[in-house]
Amino acid sequence: MRLLTKYGVTLLFLCGAVFAQKRPVDYVNPFIGTSNYGTTNPGAQVPQGLMNVSPFNVMGSTLNEFDKDARWWSTPYEFKNAYFTGFSHVNLSGVGCPDMGSLLLMATSGTLEVDYRKYGSTYSAEKATPGYYSNVLDKYKIKAEATATQRVGTTRFTFPKGTNHILLNLGEGLTNETGASVRQVSETEIEGSKLLGSFCYVNNQAVYPIYFVLRINKKPSKTGYWKFQRPGAAWENDWNKDAGKYKLFTDYKDILAGDDIGAFFSFETAEEETVEVQLAVSFVSIANARENLKTEQPKGDFDAIKTAAEAKWNDDLSKIEVEGGTADQKTVFYTALYHALIHPNIFQDVNGEYPAMETRETLKTTGNRYTVFSLWDTYRNVQPLMSLLFPDRQTAMIRSMIGMYKEHGWMPKWELYSRESYTMDGDPAIPVIVDAWMKGIRDYDIDAAYAAFYKSATVTDSSNRIRPDNADYVKYNYVPLRDSFDNSVSHAIEYYVADWNLAQLAKSLGKTDDAKMFAARANGYQHYYSKEYGTFRPILPNGDFLSPFDPLMGANFEPNHGFHEGNAWNYSFAIPYDIDGLVKLMGGKKNFVQRLQSTFDKGYFDVTNEPDMLYPHIFSEIAGEEWRTQKLVKTILQEHFTNSPGGIPGNDDTGTMSTWALMNMMGIYPLCPGRPDYTVVTPVFDKVTIHLNPDFYQGTSQIVIRKEGQGDYIKAIKVDGKKNSGYKLAHDKLVNAKEIVITTGNR
Amino acid sequence: MRLLTKYGVTLLFLCGAVFAQKRPVDYVNPFIGTSNYGTTNPGAQVPQGLMNVSPFNVMGSTLNEFDKDARWWSTPYEFKNAYFTGFSHVNLSGVGCPDMGSLLLMATSGTLEVDYRKYGSTYSAEKATPGYYSNVLDKYKIKAEATATQRVGTTRFTFPKGTNHILLNLGEGLTNETGASVRQVSETEIEGSKLLGSFCYVNNQAVYPIYFVLRINKKPSKTGYWKFQRPGAAWENDWNKDAGKYKLFTDYKDILAGDDIGAFFSFETAEEETVEVQLAVSFVSIANARENLKTEQPKGDFDAIKTAAEAKWNDDLSKIEVEGGTADQKTVFYTALYHALIHPNIFQDVNGEYPAMETRETLKTTGNRYTVFSLWDTYRNVQPLMSLLFPDRQTAMIRSMIGMYKEHGWMPKWELYSRESYTMDGDPAIPVIVDAWMKGIRDYDIDAAYAAFYKSATVTDSSNRIRPDNADYVKYNYVPLRDSFDNSVSHAIEYYVADWNLAQLAKSLGKTDDAKMFAARANGYQHYYSKEYGTFRPILPNGDFLSPFDPLMGANFEPNHGFHEGNAWNYSFAIPYDIDGLVKLMGGKKNFVQRLQSTFDKGYFDVTNEPDMLYPHIFSEIAGEEWRTQKLVKTILQEHFTNSPGGIPGNDDTGTMSTWALMNMMGIYPLCPGRPDYTVVTPVFDKVTIHLNPDFYQGTSQIVIRKEGQGDYIKAIKVDGKKNSGYKLAHDKLVNAKEIVITTGNR
Q1: Where does the record locate the signal sequence feature (chains A, B) (predicted)?
Q2: Rounded to an integer, what distance in angstroms lies between the CA atom of residue A306 and that of residue A194?
Q3: Is residue B6 predicted with pLDDT exceeding 70?
Q4: How many CA atoms are closer than 13 Å to the CA of A213, on its beta-carbon side?
């Protein structure tokens, strides 16, 4: 052991030289998805960490192409923008609505300026790797670097000689809410709170505070606050020179609260002197933020924190190793996995405390409590991926969901920091948990989960905000169109998916009657099928179809009748659990295939959103048509998932788009959540090695998926030497396989 | 003792019936000074209490004649106004600048409305007595009543049957600062903070937080907050329905911070149901506010608190008993004493803690720590009055002043809640303490006080913000006019007064050289005398007098050259300590008397402000001219001090105007602070009995001042039977006298 310690460094160096091979973490390009509305950010964070420190460049200057206040905007960073106004702490990745993105930390030089319209700067030498981001602020010649532990962001500024400043802007951010408070604890420490919430504007009551403690490692020469002062009447402005302006508070250290406030620290620095800033957060209290700081970063050692963050990422990313493929494909792949490991993220403080769902009572957990459940998105593939790669995290996430039910009485839908935003449709907690359950991940209170599911599936009064139209749904087995833009068909389709899943669970739990009831309900989708149009079509309260009807209405996220973020074409095949039934409904196999194919040929298929993301894989449910899946997946991957800032087609949706690419590149895609199998597609790589968690999967420690032969089309699938029948691979078979050989060729 | 308890009520009732005489407290009319810019308020408070609960009627409606945002405005209440928007907690009385006047508590009925422009109401049945205020809100038929202990306000609302609300508006107030925070502790308790300060706009860094805890005695059916939301761009307002409006937070209980926020409680009440609200404050912390609440009002018993407050007032007011005079004169008199006992007020919490001067470090005191020292005003008579009536309080006030020096390095000038506002002129702490010292009130650290005085008198660099032009003053013995409106002459005159006082103290302490130096400096006023105009006149940096010069420039508070809030006429006789010298300077007695008399005859005399408030008494310094004092004082009292809302001529100046009236009505007025004597004037009353504090004055327990004879002019003054030589009465003589007989007649 002593020898190892003594020569450790040398040995590692030698290893590095011998195996000069790139590690998974080295392939990640955090700029992928930072343009083209991908809404990811290149900020520093650890896997599933609460803290994300992102460059913030979406306000304050016409140098920016996109401004958060000039249009709907949901990300702290846009690759095409140019005007940096600081680092935002705690951000959302890949979402479509503005929230979070606050606690803006900036460094400047020269005369103190606290107006972000003036203190921002263009930047260059931008660099981002997992757990690290840096740039150089052109205006000030300051190098800015960020890294993070789970709940604490660390920023290092390298200053030129002279007077420099560190600013914490608490007035701005992506969130729709304003209002913050700050207090100086000592010359080198401030603490405070800021209001966040009203995500997507759906539930304007879903607001919550973030608490912070900020510490700097150099004694400032000057400290203070600023606050934008209410404009006064003309007479008053003669006396009150601060009215309608940013007022500097240079001689006040107690609590300052307001809409548009901030704190500053000024320094005299030597050339290339560095100052480190640690910003810790908590959603429980300032005291907990401080405890998080002390526990995670007892010393503020930027380089050590950066190294540890990178190591954590490499550990996680190494759960899958790939060989073959181009460097760009590896980058797309590992960046996709990186994006899949951002949300849900941990929520509890180091002492285990977190605010309970909706009640916000302080509770304590022993395991990880997760938050940011964008379930309408993630039930499709992110959560299934977690079951395969990180069943321990999946278990904790499911326990978190059940915890929310126990605290609040309802499962989450689009949960954000223990507030339910009621964004998007359906009852998506059901397929998440049922899918895991069917895959054997079962170490949680399934009775409570079932009670929660049964409740949201059956309660028909207005207390049921998960299924707001459940009275109609239960009565008619469909949701009639009661308001022009009520998304009724989309709601119902999600209820069918949830009910089909619930039927599987009921059956598994021996609740035969429930199973039958929910299975029957899941068939209700057939009500919506319009022979005339060959698509689903809204139904009016009187039972008639909506007329006139345009199945293409609603493309490009425009509102339409009955469908949410899509049109009839984007939803009409979205019944993954009953493709056979759908085929019959639509007039048989030939007609079905032709119509489904036409969604691609005619450009109806929307690659940017969830409802039809399963369409390519549906062909694999129809014997002889699987080649279409393989062809389409290849094309979509090539065209839409690239090693570039625009390399994700639209919002990443907390990793859902990335996971679509990721799993298809691996060669397996979960077409139907709740059905424990995968559609096999042509892998991008020659060899994919999946390392399994032995606590959950004892059949094998790693699965190798090997592609053999040339060509894009699958000719044969062998599992440990035995031919796999068809193009579906059961989960159980997968996780017990040592090697899966996919032989490919031309069509 | 048991008998007393048992029959106590009956006995008291009998006593009341037998001596059906009005008590001093019964004469007080808190509406005096609430119009005509008196800026007193009819709010409920105890003597020298921190808490004042005042009706707030200066915003939100065109029904008001005066609006705080439409003009310079410094009081929460104006008698002529009509639109009530709540009770403000902790107010300033008689000041000329806006500050404090926040924590606005309102009650409403029906639909919840949180915009003060809409929720306010006219009122009727208004009543105010010391420690109590009530009215009826016409719009809601709610009776609103307020009373207070030292640090806690109690409000009682009597509601009609139905849905009613209690609102705490934290967005508005008189103060120029905005920004507050609030948090719900339980259904019946909230806590928070609000920023105050920038008094008079002179020192915009002099801000400080007030902390509060509010408790209600009825469980509400609903609670929540409101906040004015930042207006969004047009596109955003489509989504964010709250943008640019007051948003209600009905489902959020954690910290809310912002510029324009509030909290509400809604109730269902029976007819005539009462709800009591206790609002406790602290300038140290929320925890201390809560401790103040628990200690002062363990039970919220409105009637008991009201009775106790009234009893406290009667105790204090009974220090002087008067007989004779009209009921209105008694009302003017006792209301004046009431106004003299509002500021300075106590500052420390029940546990003794207070924020140190400027550093705001939490310190602890055993005695009372006082705050709100408007010393440029109060050194003239309020503090001398305290020496006579409440030497214990005067001692504690002086100790507080010395404490400020020890904490901050400088004596207070216009101190407000441990911030120095640097408002008005001179070095007024010196005459306050020297006057008390010369009257034998000496139980404080005089060495520290002297060190402080010596410092502000001699330091000539920019650290000396008490005497900002001390370099000039020390060099030239006058302050040249360096800026058009720099008030240089007014500054210098105050320095002379302070230096004369300091000379007296130095002499008393055996510091002969210092005494000589400061006495010589006090003579510097002669530099300013212009023979040409017969007034003081600004001197230019080159030593010449300012030309052209208009000695009347600066009337009506208009800015002028060299004089502050007055003109050359209002300052030219303001050298109380050297009337003989002034007489010589101005060409002898005849000329002097003629010129001084002309200030009254020509209307130059400004009854609304401090600089020339001593003018009537100057005649009493000149043998044979004393009748002029007696005549002028009578006329001024009759014309300007009346039992009506406009019954104080201009700002009461934290009791200074009232004390002018009070002492003149008693028959003794302190012409020259630092010189322990009084000018005897014709008392308004036949008999004035002053009860002395035996801890300080052992010569007699009470002094009777008896007026004998008819007529307005003093013919003789006898002290305990012996003729008093002249019209001055030494303090020592006064406080050892049993009876002073003033014989009056015609001229």
Answers
A1: 1-20
A2: 27
A3: no
A4: 22
CA distance B709 to B724: 17
The angle formed by the CA atoms of residues A591, A593 and A599, to the nearest 5 degrees, is 105
CA distances from A530 to A553, A588, A589, A691, B624 (A): 16, 15, 17, 46, 115
Query: Nearest residue on chain B to A418, judged by CA atoms?
Result: B252
Q: Which residues of B touch A71 (CB under 8 A)?
A: 235
- Among the listed residues A507, A459, A467, A462, the one whose alpha carbon sits nearest the alpha carbon of residue A488: A467
Are B259 and B179 in contact, with CB atoms under 8 Å apart?
Answer: yes
- Measure the CA–CA gap between A24 and A10, rounded to whole angstroms: 23
The DSSP line for A667-734 is TEE--STTS-EEEE---SSSEEEEE--TTT--S-SEEEEEEESSSSEEEEEEETTEEPSSSEEEHHHH
CB contact under 8 A, B257 and A254: no
pLDDT digits (tens, 9 = 90+) for A640-689: 999 999 999 999 999 999 999 999 999 999 999 999 999 999 999 999 99
Q: Which of B204, B239, B252 is the closest to A207 by Cβ?
A: B252
Instruction: Indicate whether A14 pLDDT > 80.
Output: no
From the list B204, B236, B250, which residue is nearest A247 (CB)?
Answer: B204
pLDDT tens digits, one per residue of B99-152? 999 999 999 999 999 999 999 999 999 999 999 999 999 999 999 999 999 999
Among chain B residues, the shortest Cα distance to A255 is held by B209
DSSP B614: T
The confidence score (pLDDT) of residue A558 equals 75
pLDDT of A6 above 60: no
If DSSP codes are grouped into helix, strand and coil, which group holds residue A104? strand
Q: Which A residues 68-97 touch B at CB under 8 Å?
A: 69-72
Longest C-alpha distance within chain B, in Å? 89
CA distance B153 to chain A (A): 23
User: CA of B262 to nearest chain A CA: how many angstroms apart?
Assistant: 13
Strand runs labelled E in B3-137: 53-55, 87-89, 102-109, 123-129, 132-137
- Contact (CB<8Å) B181/A255: yes
Please give the angle made by the CA atoms of B714, B715 and B719, to the nearest 5 degrees. 85
3-state secondary structure B508-553: HCCCHHHHHHHHHHHHHHHHHEECCCCEECCECCCCCECCCCCCCC
Where b means 16+ CB within 10 Å and e means fewer, A476-504 reads bbbbbbeeeebbbbbbbbbbbbbbbbbbb
Contact B242 A204 (CB under 8 A): yes
Residue with tokens 């015609």: B746
Residue A9 has pLDDT above 90, yes or no: no
The interface predicted TM-score of the complex, written ipTM, equals 0.93
Q: Which percentage of chain A shows pLDDT scores above 70?
A: 97
- When pLDDT is averaged across residues B35-56 and rounded to a whole number, the result is 98
Q: What is the length of chain B?
A: 747
A473/A175 Cα distance (integer angstroms): 34
Among B175, B174, B172, B167, which Cα is nearest to B259's? B172
Which A positions 339-358 lie with beta carbon below 8 A of chain B?
Answer: 358
Task: Tell me what the mean pLDDT of segment B481-489 comes to.
Answer: 92
A249 vs B176: CB contact, 8 Å cut-off?
A: no
Alpha helices in A509-625, H assignment, sequence order: 512-522, 568-571, 579-585, 589-601, 615-618
Strands (E), A488-598: 529-530, 535-536
Task: Using pLDDT thresholds of 50, 70 and 90, give the confidence band for residue A3.
Answer: very low
Gap between the Cα atoms of A234 and B98, Å rounded: 16
Query: Contact, B662 vs B340, CB < 8 A?
Result: yes
Cα-flanking dihedrals φ and ψ of residue B89, to 5°?
A: -110, 130
Structure tokens that stand for A500 in this block: 């089909």
The domains of chain B, with CATH numbers, are 26-312 (2.70.98.10), 318-745 (3.30.2080.10)
**Interchain contact B513–A (C-beta under 8 A):** no
